[in-house]
Amino acid sequence: xxxxxxxxxxxxxxxxxxxxxxxxxxxxxxxxxxxxxxxxxxxxxxxxxxxxxxxxxxxxxxxxxxxxx
Length: 69
Fold this sequence. Notes:
The chain is an alpha+beta fold and 69 residues long. It is built from 2 helices and 3 strands.
């Protein structure tokens, strides 16, 4: 795993808020570390905490949740 962010790891605060709201509709909370601190890590919380390696993984999980509805 690279210690630098890919372009897809860097999204605007508004886009992150929208993505977070979509997770909330499924009973999950999406967090990210502060981009100013270096590499951005994403976390999805529900019954536990899952550390995600990148934004693409978070979007994939959300896509699967939305497909089940």
